[in-house]
Amino acid sequence: MKCTRCTEPAEVKLRAHNSAFCRECFVFFFQRRVERAITHEKMFSHDERILVAVSGGKDSLALWDALVLQGYDTIGFHLALGIGGYSLRSREKTEKFARDRGLRLEVHALTEDGLAVPDVIASTRRPACSACGTMKRHHFDRAALELGCAALATGHNLDDEAARLFGNVLHWQTEYLARQRPVMQPRHPKFVRKVKPLYLTGEFESATYAFMRGIDYVVEECPNAAGATQLAYKAVLDDLENRFPGTKLAFVREFTERASAAFALPEDRETTARSCEECGMPSFGALCSFCSLRAEVERRQAERAARAGAPAAPA
Ligand code: AMP
Ligand code: ZN
Predict the structure, then answer these.
(1) How would you classify residue 226: left for phi > 0, otherwise alpha for psi between -120 and 50, otherwise beta?
(2) How far is the CA of 17 from the centre of ligand 1 (A)?
(3) Which-ligand-closest: CA of 133?
(4) Kind of pairing between the strands at 274-275 and 282-283
(5) Which of 20, 46, 147, 288 is the most buried (most CB within 10 A)?
(6) pLDDT tens per residue, the chain (315 residues)?
(7) 196 with 153: CB under 8 angstroms?
(8) Cα(191)–Cα(141) distance, integer angstroms
(9) Which residue's alpha carbon is nearest to atom 18 within ligand 1?
(10) Of the ligands numbered here, which is closest to the C-alpha atom of 142?
(11) SS (H, E, C) 281-314
(12) Which of 60, 110, 149, 164 gets mutated to test ligand 1 (max ligand atoms within 8 A of its CB)?
């Protein structure tokens, strides 16, 4: 097998692209694809500062690496979720990546707010991923605003996007379909643009890129993660991809280019006009969803403490 680009012996074969690459050409190919997604979808420019949300996994570290090599002005942001050893290892890998390359990384630890994910789940009984998602969104938005960034980039990859699109189509979740875009423009002056430069890059590609670039990432998945449904969708898509290489790429790319506009919501329905009374970030009601979650955790913890401290009822 020879490299499609330079005819040297190839190290990796990409059936979806009908190509094979040697190490050097694969790194070039990966970076060019990321760059094309950024320019084609007008995600951001070299004059803007980008906040990269880095979890310590292969996708977000590969993305950060590629953006830095292409000369973008980036700051990394890691949210330490407090999910035991998994979160400790994720933070360590992220910090080491930044340290080794002299990159600016901001870390916010939920444990310092008394909001470690396991405590929040235990006291509110909300599904893990929903509580975690609320806290991630809040801190990503807040950090992007505070650090003067024009856009927030996440490492969502083609496999994530295809599985999500598949689920949204199966249930005709038209409002979610309206929001499934590689670029989401801000709906409030305190929000920034949200972009997914890897939306057409498969996880095999980011894992290969990370390996070839010597990036040490967390391999384990979040112990709470991946609902059974999402995994089932991924399995169906993997099966299709095996039989018909390029299926995922066509599914997501054609949706974005041809079908997405049909689900767009009128502007006014997407506007959040109010500010949260607690933190000042945009909100629908008096409190934003993060501050409501925090209030709920505090209320339940106070109730529990009161019960624990109350004198026992007479026998
Ligand atoms: P996930 O929802 O875990 O698949 O993650 C999707 C993307 O969100 C990742 O590629 C990162 O860009 C970002 N992300 C997830 N978890 C964190 C975290 N703890 N800190 C910073 N960014 C994160
Ligand atoms: Zn708030």
Answers:
(1) left
(2) 27
(3) 1
(4) antiparallel
(5) 288
(6) 999 999 999 999 999 999 999 999 999 999 999 999 999 999 999 999 999 999 999 999 999 999 999 999 999 999 999 999 999 999 999 999 999 999 999 999 999 988 898 888 888 878 888 889 999 999 999 999 999 999 999 999 999 999 999 999 999 999 999 999 999 999 899 999 999 999 999 999 999 999 999 999 999 988 887 677 888 999 999 999 999 999 999 999 999 999 999 998 876 555 567 899 999 999 989 999 999 999 999 998 888 888 887 665 554
(7) yes
(8) 6
(9) 55
(10) 2
(11) CEECCCCCHHHHHHHHHHHHHHHHHHHHHCCCCC
(12) 60
- Kindly provide the b/e burial profile for residues 209-244, where b requires at least 16 CB atoms within 10 angstroms of the residue's own CB: bbbbbebebbeeebebeeeeebeebbeebeeebeee
Q: Up-side HSE of residue 74: CA atoms within 13 Å toward CB?
A: 25
115: amino acid identity, one letter = L
Gap between the Cα atoms of 299 and 124, Å rounded: 10
